[in-house]
């Protein structure tokens, strides 16, 4: 009698069992990405726009307040920005939402200052007297004033890119959308701005290193 | 989430590899700049309130997803729909179709509550016109000096004939939703930045203006009244001017009327035909120019028309002891509302729209009324199928007519074929006052019978709720007298 060896085949199953371990969790729905929220908001989903608002409301508030130095003006511009965004969300490319939102805000700020200040200048950045909540620490204040002096030597374009990247934490794609430049140009401006800061004063650089180490 | 220093450094290396030789400095520099970012205090209350306001707004938006990906299909499809779709009942208005700037959002059935006719209040501007005995009118036109110089005595009840309106043809009842006007006028009118010398408005947080009056500080300036709660704007001369013409001497001038309505300058005209000095075309041109100059769009309205009734002012020449003569002071231009390609009438049967009054002598605008938001919510209500109920409502002359008593003589007025319109009603419900556009039938009045002089049409709503309750109040209510071609003075 011949023996037929039938190879064992693992039964097909659409359920994979994992041994219980500390990584086993109830599977939760993955949080939607920003582009996904934008797409939902574009079809009228209030909750999606609400979620976008929650993510960007406070950073945008800070972005505008830092550039207007006046809380009531900032809140007015924040309101205008969000209402414009809500009313024209259909025209936004989902992947470009942050840049698009900040572009709206920036244009409103520029319009606000159009009569006297056609561009956002360093003077519009607040000091400690503009409602900031920084500690009233003399050393911190001194360091901030020093940085402010150093950043003031950058060209306006370099300064804008550096601040948008380091303080507002916007990507180069978003910065490019806001400033109407290419991402590559923005990277170059950032690079040149940092190079200028670094080469400006060795003593300043040393001060920064020491200060950073002291306050780590 | 704040980008890490490492990522920032990698970005810089990608732009300029020479940065690698200075990594410690770079790291320290970036760290320091980021550490000393000014951290503004976020007004959490404002953030929460703004979110609430945003979520309460329902902007009309179009989903562009289809158009983005299927333009070759979507555009021809839209064009085909535009060609092949047509309304069930053509509007009777001679006004041409227009690019609609009116938005309508559908909501649930009976969303505005039960429409009881008792909750409807009269819209402003409606004027009643009762029948007058021909003899009474003749005596007025002879220039007899009335008992008082500023009023016209009310004719007695026996002078009235109560009109009964009829229509003998076929009535086709249209079906349409009831529309409620949304009164949102947009962003707050006033920024919260105003700090008056007496107090700080900003200390109250998010203040919004409700009713605001702005006035120009010139003698012939305008006053603009904005009612943000009702979503309406009115514009009027701060000091009304009335014109007169001295036909005998050929000169013309203007007079002032003070706040109490007393004429402070008396013209010395001895005769006046009352003929208007302002042509319809000139009146419309002056009105349109004014609206355009002040950023008021005339798009979305029907073709502007001059209302059939003029607004004369009685002028008394006390020096010559001459009787009052009607002088045409102004002409009203109406930019008619058109909603869903249907005209809108008030309950008295007068065409409704933005009213621009133009001074006949100076050809300048005296006032603009009924400038309001035209966004609506639409709700389905039961349309009547009872033609008899419609005819009964018609016979009584529409909503705002009340019969004094059964002893009043009547006159039968035959109307023309009805057309579908919207009837504008102000509706009181739960303490709120809302403007409703109710689907209705308009029965035009062409009769020149003096008994209905001044009346344009009878409007009959076709909603069951509104037809179910009688609007006749026997023996109560005032009799609004009217001399058809002479309006009472103040």
Could you characterize the architecture of this molecule?
The complex is a heterodimer of chains A (216) and B (490). Chain A has 216 residues and is mainly α. Chain A is 60% helix and 0% strand. The longest helix of chain A has 23 residues, at 46-68. Chain B contains nine helices and 21 strands. In chain B, strands 1, 2, 4, 13, 14, 17, 19, 20 and 21 form a nine-stranded mixed beta sheet that branches. In chain B, strands 5, 6, 7, 10, 11, 12, 15 and 16 form an eight-stranded antiparallel beta sheet that branches. Chain B has a two-stranded parallel ribbon with strand order 3-18. In chain B, strand 11 (311-317) and strand 12 form a beta hairpin. At the A-B interface, helix 2, helix 3, helix 5, helix 6 and helix 8 of A face helix 1, helix 2 and helix 3 of B.
Unreliable stretches of chain A: 1-28, 115-137
* Shape verdict of chain B: elongated
User: What is the strand content of chain B?
Assistant: 25-35%
Q: Tell me the series of helices and strands of chain B, N- to C-terminal.
A: HHHHHEEHEEEEEEEHEEEEEEEEHEEEEH
Q: End-to-end distance of chain A, in Å? A: 81 Å
Number of strands of chain A: 0
Largest interface: A-B, 65 and 49 residues
Using DSSP, what is the number of strands of chain B? 21
Low-confidence stretches of chain B: 60-69, 82-100, 122-158, 242-276, 308-328, 471-490
> What's the tally of helices of chain B?
9
Strand content of chain A: under 5%
Coarse structural class of chain A? mainly alpha
Kindly report the average pLDDT value of chain B. Answer: 68
The helix fraction of chain A, in percent, is 55-70%
Largest sheet of chain B: 9 strands, mixed
Topology readout:
The complex is a heterodimer of chains A (216) and B (490).
Chain A: H1 34-42, H2 46-68, H3 71-87, H4 97-113, H5 138-151, H6 156-166, H7 172-179, H8 183-200, H9 202-214
Helix pairs in contact in A: 1-2, 2-3, 2-4, 3-4, 4-7, 6-8, 7-8
Chain B: H1 5-15, H2 23-35, H3 44-56, H4 65-69, H5 71-84, E1 103-106, E2 120-121, H6 134-141, E3 162-166, E4 178-182, E5 211-215, E6 222-227, E7 232-237, E8 241-245, E9 252-256, H7 280-293, E10 305-306, E11 311-317, E12 322-336, E13 338-339, E14 342-346, E15 353-359, E16 365-372, E17 375-379, H8 387-395, E18 410-414, E19 419-429, E20 432-444, E21 457-461, H9 464-468
Helix pairs in contact in B: 1-2
């Amino acid at each position: 009698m011949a023996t037929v060896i039938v190879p064992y085949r693992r039964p097909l199953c659409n359920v994979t069992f994992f041994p219980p371990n500390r990584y086993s969790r109830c599977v939760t729905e993955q949080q939607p990405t920003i582009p996904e929220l934008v797409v939902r908001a574009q079809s009228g989903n209030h909750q999606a726009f609400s979620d976008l608002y929650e993510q960007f409301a406070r950073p945008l508030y800070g972005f505008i307040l830092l550039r207007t130095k006046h809380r009531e003006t900032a809140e007015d511009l924040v309101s205008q920005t969000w209402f414009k965004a809500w009313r024209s969300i259909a025209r936004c490319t989902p992947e470009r939402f942050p840049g698009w939102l900040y572009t709206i805000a920036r244009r409103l700020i520029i319009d606000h200052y159009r009569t006297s200040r056609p561009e956002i200048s360093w003077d519009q950045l607040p000091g400690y007297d503009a409602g900031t909540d920084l500690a009233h620490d003399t050393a911190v204040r001194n360091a901030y004033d020093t940085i402010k002096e150093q950043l003031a030597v950058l060209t306006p374009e370099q300064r804008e890119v550096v601040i948008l990247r380091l303080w507002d934490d916007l990507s180069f794609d978003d910065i490019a959308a806001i400033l109407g430049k290419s991402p590559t140009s923005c990277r170059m401006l950032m690079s040149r701005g940092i190079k200028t800061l670094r080469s400006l004063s060795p003593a300043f650089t040393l001060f920064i290193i020491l200060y950073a180490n002291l306050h780590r | 989430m704040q980008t890490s220093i490492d990522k920032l450094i990698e970005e810089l290396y990608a732009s300029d590899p020479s940065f690698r030789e200075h990594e410690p400095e770079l790291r320290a520099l970036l760290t320091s700049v980021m550490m000393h970012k000014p951290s503004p205090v976020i007004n959490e209350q404002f953030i929460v309130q703004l979110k609430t306001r945003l979520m309460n707004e329902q902007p009309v938006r179009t989903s562009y997803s289809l158009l983005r990906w299927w333009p070759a299909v979507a555009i021809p499809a839209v064009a085909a729909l535009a060609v092949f779709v047509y309304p069930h009942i053509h509007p009777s208005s001679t006004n041409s179709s227009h690019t609609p700037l009116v938005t309508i959002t559908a909501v649930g059935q009976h969303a505005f509550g039960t429409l009881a006719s008792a909750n409807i209040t009269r819209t402003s501007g409606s004027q009643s016109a009762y029948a007058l005995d021909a003899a009474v009118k003749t005596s007025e036109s002879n220039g007899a000096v009335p008992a008082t110089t500023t009023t016209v005595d009310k004719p007695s009840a026996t002078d009235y004939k109560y009109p009964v309106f009829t229509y003998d043809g076929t009535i086709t009842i249209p079906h349409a939703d009831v529309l409620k006007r949304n009164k949102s006028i947009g962003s707050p009118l006033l920024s919260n930045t105003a700090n008056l010398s007496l107090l700080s408005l900003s200390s109250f947080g998010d203040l919004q203006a409700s009713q605001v009056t702005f006035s120009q500080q010139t003698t012939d300036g305008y006053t603009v009244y904005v009612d943000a709660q009702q979503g309406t704007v009115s514009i009027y001369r701060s000091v009304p001017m009335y014109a007169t013409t001295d036909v005998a001497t050929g000169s013309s001038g203007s007079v002032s009327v003070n706040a109490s309505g007393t004429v402070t300058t008396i013209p010395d005209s001895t005769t006046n035909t009352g003929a208007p000095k302002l042509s319809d075309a000139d009146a419309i041109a002056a009105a349109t120019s004014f609206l355009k100059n002040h950023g008021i769009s005339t798009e979305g309205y029907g073709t502007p028309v001059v209302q059939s009734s003029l607004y004369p002012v009685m002028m008394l020449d006390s020096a010559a002891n001459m009787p009052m003569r009607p002088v045409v002071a102004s002409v009203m231009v109406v930019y008619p509302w058109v909603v869903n390609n249907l005209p809108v009438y008030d309950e008295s049967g007068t065409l409704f729209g933005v009213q621009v009054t133009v001074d006949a002598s100076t050809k300048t605008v005296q006032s603009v009324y009924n400038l309001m938001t035209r966004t609506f919510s639409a709700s389905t209500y039961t349309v009547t199928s009872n033609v008899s109920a419609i005819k009964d409502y018609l016979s009584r002359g529409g909503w705002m007519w009340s019969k004094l008593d059964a002893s009043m003589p009547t006159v039968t007025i035959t109307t023309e074929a009805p057309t579908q319109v919207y009837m504008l009603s102000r509706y009181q419900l739960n303490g709120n006052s809302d403007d409703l556009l109710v689907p209705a039938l308009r029965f035009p009045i062409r009769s020149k019978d003096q008994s209905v002089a001044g009346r344009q049409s009878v409007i009959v709503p076709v909603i069951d709720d509104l037809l179910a309750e009688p609007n006749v109040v026997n023996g109560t209510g005032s009799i609004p007298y009217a001399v058809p071609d002479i309006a009472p003075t103040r």
